[in-house]
Here is the input.
Amino acid sequence: MIYQSLNGESWRHIYIVGDLHGCRQLLDERLGEVNFDYSQDLLVAVGDLIDRGPDSLGCLTLLTEPWFRSVRGNHEEMAIAALTVGQHSPWIRNGGDWFYQLSGSGMIEAKHALSQCRLLPLILHIVQGSRLIVVAHADYPAAVYAWGAAVDATDVVWSRARLERLQNGTGAEIRGADAFYFGHTPLDKPLHAFNQHYIDTGAVYGHSLTLAQIQ
Here is the structure.
């Protein structure tokens, strides 16, 4: 699935969280700080739920929660490639070793959860009345956003080209939506430029976990 649409009117508050990378306890603490209401609010993740941190399986269980949505990150892509076509080495080198240490019911649970990652969209299209918010892991690789438009899936989950342009002063607005939220690249603090918001602040490396409220 490339695109998935959400109607913001279905929830009271909507938050977007940066790359989790197995930091489930930290996420739960942050949700407590903002008085997240699990019956009325929605949490959207920018992908990379797994790897490197202490509780990848705990983060994967979020996929079963009615108050949670996520796009697919490059770490989910690596896990899927390992389990479907045997490309194990790239995943292990990038933090997937936790999976290979599992056994028994833990392994079964992880395999089932990771299989669900194949159903995650690359792009979330969130409608808030007259506003449109777009969430993807690394980039929306076009100058103009359009629902259903063909995009390079690899760029959506891997590309840092747009962020690098912003950092060297040659960035530009992405037309067609009001705001775009991305993760993928750990930054010292969130980067907000034009209508783009980069919110991976390296929680797995001991830094803060960014939670952005968009509604």
Summary: The domain at 3-213 is CATH 3.60.21.10 (Purple Acid Phosphatase; chain A, domain 2). Strands lie at 3-7, 14-17, 42-45, 68-70, 123-128, 131-136, 179-182, 191-193, 196-198, 211-213.
